[in-house]
Structure prediction request, 301 residues.
Amino acid sequence: TTAEPEVTLPAPTETPSTTDAVIESTQQTVRSTAEWLASGIDKRFGDKPFSDGGTVTDGQIGLSYLKRDGHGSNLGLRFNARFRLPNLSEIPYVFVGSDDERSIVTDQPDRRTLREQIRQRNSSNNSFFAGVGLWLADSVDVRIGFRGLLRPYAQARLRHQWQLTPDDLVEVRETVFYTVKDRAGSTLALEYQHAFTPDIAVRWLNAGTITQEQPDLTVTSNLGIFKSFGQQRVLGLELQYSDSTVDAITTNDIGIQLSWEQPLHKMILGEVTLGRYWPRSTTVPDRTGQWAAGATIGLKF
Prediction:
């Protein structure tokens, strides 16, 4: 009896969907653009090719739509990335991005409230920024950068965390900065986090900024509770307060914000937000409620 020869069939291949193909193409295009930019910057500092150890990491691009009563609607684009440049290998890191230049210079905490995003979109356009940073210690670094049309700024930053208990974390951030317009300035941020359960946590974030040009303290405070539903799905409820004085006009804003964040597709993260705010200023003393809504899509590359 002759045994039948074994026939090995090829494993079925999964055909990527049109959505997958578009996302992967977009991701590759953004990464290629970032690498082209990094390579162009690197060439200005030496003859080493970018392929000799050059990398682009921590890349993220985000598209947001924001609307608030009395402010209209705005479409904004943000991107951030960290470069390793072979011709600047002695410098620990190079940073580049596009964002609200006031937040970049004053080094505001990363958490963006819907109210703050809308205020920034209406008061100033996003600016391109880039610079170099040097770590002096594990929690101390200095940075020199440019934003917009080659307007320079310098920062010295200190960050420290205390894990008080397994469920309690305190972080302090102090940034001293200098610009031609502001002269010397400082931002102090204090954040407290407490985990009630593995999937429920509260966060209280406070920040204050002062400059020689604007000696009145600008204060922001954000108290939020967050519930995780797994797989990067997070529901948040936040109470917000801000107070600032510009040209002798004091404005404070109280608000509440509800947000839902979840993955949309692989490397894409989406967030929708709804808020209600009650602003007041020295020129408009009566508080009038205003609705706000927003949606953000972020892609890592």
Observations:
- The first strand starts at residue 55 and ends at 68.
